[in-house]
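Form 7-S
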Amino acid sequence: MFTFNLKASTMDKPAQSILKSVFGYDKFRPLQAEIIGNILDRQDVLVVMPTGGGKSLCYQIPALVFDGLTVVISPLISLMKDQVEQLMQLGVSATVLNSSLSAVDYRQNVELVRSKAAKLLYLAPEALLKSNMLELLSSVKVECLAIDEAHCISQWGHDFRPEYRQLIKARSNFPKAACVALTATATPRVREDIKTSLQMDSDREYLASFNRENLFIQIVPKDNPLKQTLQFIQKFEYQSGIIYCHSRKQVETLYEVLSENGFSAKPYHAGLTDIERNRNQEAFIRDDVQIIVATIAFGMGIDKPNVRFVLHYDLPKNIESYYQEIGRAGRDGLNSHCLLLFSYADVQKIKYFIDQKDPAEKRVANIHLGALLRFAESEVCRRIPLLNYFGEDYTIEKCSTCDNCLAEDKELVDLTIPAQKFLSCVKRTGEKFGSGHLIDVLRESKAKKVLQFGHDKLSTYGIGADYSKKQWQQLARQFLHKGLMVQDMEFGSLKLTDKGWDVLKGRCEVWGQLAQERTVEKLVEESQRSDDLNFNQQLFEILRKERKELADSSGVPPYIIFSDKTLVEMATYFPQSRDNLLDIHGVGAVKCDRFGATFLDIIDRFCRENDIEERPKRPPKVLPGSPKKSSTARFHTMN
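Output:
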């Protein structure tokens, strides 16, 4: 973890007490205590934390300490709804005012604010700026203004929204309120833009590490995407996942294939009606559907913590989008897998859309695309280029949670002859074709395009038949990385560099690796590392079923009852008393009162039937002068 411009701040005892009694957490995550302390001191704060890093807690706890109201600016109705539902299950008085409410509900929520019964109010940015809303808020004491998804303020951000730019007008109405801007994705330039736009009067900028250690990052060549996708998702039976596609058509096609193969899936894209999109999203959130196949329109308002995989069927448009999208996996801290199927054909599609933009937007988009390609093509730890992009100095050579770091070290072999064959083919076809066509020529293909251009008559036709298509693809990528060729990003054609000419003429050698790409299936197996806790899978499934029934009867998503991480700890420590249940992650006093008896009964019955002893999460307190606990006592701590 690293920070900039931090100033020590005393953490109030009420905040620590609320953390445990309301939210059920034993300790703050890195930076949360300092951020909360500064907000309680009414200081402006910029918070940049990865998705799942605990940003919302940074303003929710101060909201419960303050006497007055905390106003939260959020861009999506679904995001507001999810946050309010979670807070209400915790016994926190939170409400929302937006266009999704009926007239009756809207008036009731206004009255909650006016009567000072609500501690948090969620609004869209455009709603905050309306005169009737400012009039309502002038009647109460606004203690804090929290601006979520703050990167929307910046034109250099990946999701710029003009209405966010107007929030400074509202700030002047609450001169004594602390202002906290929060985002999961912001480059140094975007961070400066946020602070300038909001006229933040302090230099308190809190930057958590962008590294999500529980996410396994993998990028593989996209050669048979349907087969690759089916291989991948078969490893995640009954687990939630998101598949991102570039177009509506691709979403529908893939959704139909998954359904035909027996997978529980639903589509999500702008071509569906609002009712269809909301219905499909709700089914996914409530665990009624396993997989959502979507365009980038999906996910910004989703706080579902148990997404176990994110698959990019097509190339995202920039690193910010990619990082935000993979960030929807593993928000509960458990291991999750992020797979990107990479092809230069997808690069050309993105270039086509970039070329339709005006010169200024085109320049920014090309910079973003270039950074994404450097990340995708990198042979070092995936986290190095990814985190460096966001200004984080990450230098660990082996993270053990990406495909490059798991790749076996192989001895370098002399690739001079295959390099000469490939480069010769590039030259003899006029430097007008991409690697796919060149490989077809080298491998003596009878493809229509090869015959159409007469490339079956070239001296290089068939001279590479001793290597498989996958081997040639791997070799071509190495030759690009080594600077023997350059690729036209618009058309995909390859051209020789001066270094490539030297190799072709025999003036220098080429050394590298010749190996088959690891299959998606193999890497999924390797990435599914055992989590820190060795939990009882049978009990976990029983608890998960009970959670689903309780959630359905309450009309909320299952994770709002308890997260997967909470159920994992229950199935690890087998709590059989209220005190020990309160030691479990995510079990606060309100949830313990509401659901504790039900879950304790299930755990107690399971332990009796299977002769399992309770494992207290922490050693019991020993009073001075008390005899030491016998080694034969029923309760024991984990090794």
